[in-house]
Amino acid sequence: MTAVANKGEEKVKFGSDPNDDLKAFEFGINVLAGYQFACGFFVSANYNTGLSNIAPGDVGDDTKFHNRFFGLNIGFTFKSKPEPAAATVN
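Above: the chain's sequence. Below: its structure in token form.
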């Protein structure tokens, strides 16, 4: 991953080493809610919050970094054609 700063780029290092910028592993909770209308149109929203601290160990005892994400989705589901009935042998 690359972070862009004023007129420059800096590589972000993920891992468990004290020299890394962020921890590589995180766990969290995701909540999703949505509705699909009969015409095929749907709308949904989701929220994700990280439960684990991804700050490197050498930042300080009081420093905590957590990921948070909010998303909105809209779309349309196309109806599929029904499968032809399978032939039965009597």
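The beta strands are 2-5, 8-11, 28-36, 41-50, 68-76.
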